[in-house]
Design a protein that fits this description.
mainly alpha, 13 helices
């Protein structure tokens, strides 16, 4: 006689299979899904702003969306070209980096020799200095690979146009699918509130990133760090990746200050600038601009960054945080799944 399967085990098995299937799809269809993910971010971050302009100036929606995305394209291309040119200029116009690397190499070898360590077989940092000085030649070859990145940018903007242009399809879908008026109103309310929260969060994050860049730029100018605008843009963009991005920006800026300045106070000041900017962002800018739109806890954000990086690289580190927020909102909208949303949010103070 065959025993019946335990319903809990069956449900767990089905859920585990669906979870593994989703992960497999995310990995296999990465090249297809990444532009769509960026398009959703661009669309959601622009939606409330464009709706406000549409109501105020009564411009045709399609024309308004097209003009907006063209401006977004020019901004993205401008940032990419600016970063490319600045990196090339830093490498070509910073000969003191080579000298400082050689000096550090010499002092380090002398210190190891005083401890009785054989330094003849060690890595020669002079080769690294030479590679840094000749890196401008490799930048020319890098341009050939930039076409793929620009292709993804154009594709994302095309998707964004269609997402924004056909935004009313979601409302019409709910109207056709749900004939119960009360249920229709409840579902539309959940969808509208979810879109509003995510849209406000993304738009606020863009504004906060811009203010962060301006603040870092002013502080770096006061201290006297060269290429202050580049480092400000670099640090502000990396700030979109929680935890990891700030650490990378801190190490890069402090290393540059150490290699280009004679005093150790400059690396210390560079670290202090980023620490001060992040403190102002988290305690003043974020509560005022973003608020508690998503209110994800630190563990959820960290897991989203790590999982996103493993699956989609840098793109995943950025887009998986709003995705986690969307999952939290969906879980909160249903009575059966509301308890699970507690794992995503901040605990209430006792």
């Amino acid at each position: 006689m065959v025993q019946s399967t335990n319903p809990r085990i069956a449900n767990f098995t089905i859920n585990l299979f669906l979870f593994c299937l989703i992960i497999l799809i995310l990995v296999v269809a990465k090249n297809f899904l990444v532009p769509i993910a960026w398009a959703l971010l661009i669309s959601l971050s622009s939606l409330r702003f464009l709706e406000g302009l549409h109501k105020k100036y009564r411009v045709k929606w399609g024309l308004l969306v097209l003009v907006h995305l063209v401006l977004v394209l020019f901004i993205i291309l401008g940032i990419v070209i600016f970063l490319f040119a600045e990196v090339k200029a830093i490498i070509e116009n910073s000969p003191e980096i080579d000298e400082k690397l050689i000096q550090i190499d010499h002092n380090f070898r002398m210190w190891l020799s005083s401890l009785g360590v054989n330094t003849h077989e060690m890595f020669n940092i002079r080769s690294l200095a030479k590679r840094l000085s000749d890196f401008s030649a490799y930048l020319v070859q890098f341009v050939g690979n930039v076409g793929h990145v620009f292709g993804d940018i154009f594709l994302s903007l095309i998707y964004s146009f269609f997402f924004l242009f056909y935004k009313d399809i979601l409302t019409r879908f709910f109207v056709m699918k749900y004939h119960d008026r009360n249920k229709l109103q409840r579902i539309k309310g959940i969808a509208d509130s979810s879109l509003a929260v995510i849209s406000d969060y993304l738009f606020g994050t863009l504004i906060m990133t811009a203010l962060m860049g301006i603040m870092i730029y002013i502080l770096l100018l006061v201290v006297g760090i060269r290429y202050a605008l580049f480092w400000a843009v670099f640090a502000a963009l990396l700030n979109l990746i929680p935890y990891i991005g700030n650490a990378i920006a801190l190490v890069a800026l402090a290393g540059y200050a150490l290699l280009t300045k004679d005093s150790l106070w400059y690396p210390v000041l560079a670290v202090g600038i980023l620490f001060l900017a992040n403190t102002i962002q988290e305690n003043i800018l974020r509560p005022l601009i973003v608020g508690d739109k998503l209110s994800l806890n630190a563990l959820t954000v960290f897991i989203s960054v790590v999982a996103g990086g493993m699956l989609w690289g840098v793109t995943g580190m950025i887009v998986f945080i709003p995705i986690a927020g969307i999952i939290k909102i969906i879980l909160e909208s249903r009575e059966q799944t509301r308890p699970y949303s507690l794992f995503f949010g901040e605990p209430k103070p006792r």
